[in-house]
Amino acid sequence: MRDPTPFQDAPARKRPPLPPALRLGLQFAPEGLARDLASLQARPWTPHFNTDLYHGDWSGLALRAPAGARHAVEVLHNAPGLTDFADLPVLARCPHFKAVVDALACEVRAVRLLRLAPGARIAEHRDHDLGHAFGEVRLHLPIVTNAAVDFRVAGARVVMRPGELWYIDASEPHAVRNDGAAARVHLVVDCHLNDWLEVQLQAAGPAPAAAESAHAPAVAEAMAGWPRVSREADDMTPRILAFLHRIGVPVSTADLPGKSFLPGIEIEAGGLRVDPSRLRYPGDLLHEAGHLAVLPPDQRCQQGAEVSNDPAQEMMAIAWSWAALTHLALSPEVVFHADGYKGDAQWLIDTYSSGTFIALPMLQWIGLSADPSHAEALGIAPYPHMIRWLREEDATHDAIDH
């Protein structure tokens, strides 16, 4: 996220039109999202300010808000024209919500939870200038919902399930009613459209054939190279790439006809070169990035395809990739798959899942993370939370000495 570059494309009227609702390829673990939500239920939720628009309880809890906002309504509301937003402290305490925001390689504006109580309904309305055509995109991620929720966009019912990420064109007429016995809660994220988000939207569903634009070939080229091994792989690869981009690990595509240690991936000059046609496991991107991340900067920028056989570096890369998959709310099998780790993948999953974090002392020594006792002294969350994702020049002992 936090891509400061606005979407520079043809005028809004020439962008390829999209359906009013699209399910994006990104998906998140519902269990983790539900745990974050449960941790916030005791907090005060703010009723939506437009009381003429709804009946019953429609309320929200802001996680990212306009910078400098003080009043509860200001904090929750994304007013037109606002461009300066800041994370609220509560977001850092919700690792799964934070992972969603961090997976979005675009400028993220308002982020809030919106709750619609049983029996509540929101009348049909439009949020003018809030849609793909205007360069402002609203994303919905259901946290808890039920079969009796009726969400209508442009007259059509949209059924969204927990963990799915949806684009909703809020400039179209839309209405919601909750006829179920449980509350419906969505994580709602407003974003500024850029090339990365355009790719996600175009990949989610084809634009009408007659609506080509100068941007469409670039979108097609960006997506065409990546493998279609499975729907699960298609869902996770953009999240991993966005994460690596955000933390500063360069990734580029290349034709890699020769044999590489991991299929379709080579390390070169401190970055990853990826052959999409040969990439077998998207999670391998995280493991190889881990090898780069634990190196001092002067070594990282010179690292080539021949990775050190040092067992300590390998174990640190494993610990780093476990922290990364936890941060991204990915299944452990994404990284620790059966074809890798010399047959020890399941053992590593079982070991880390039990709380035995091999190589954590080494990550702590190079300043990337902290064990529970040192984390408490620092006032931060312990591993698998990371203090930083890339080793710095003089970071050794930081997590221990301060």
From TrEMBL:
Domain of life: Bacteria
Gene3D superfamilies per the UniProt record, alphabetical: B-lactam Antibiotic, Isopenicillin N Synthase, Chain
Name by which UniProt lists this protein: Aspartyl/asparaginyl beta-hydroxylase domain-containing protein
InterPro entries the record matches: Asp/Arg/Pro-Hydrxlase, IPNS-like_sf
All residue ranges annotated as the Aspartyl/asparaginy/proline hydroxylase domain in the record: 92-191
Native species: Denitromonas halophila
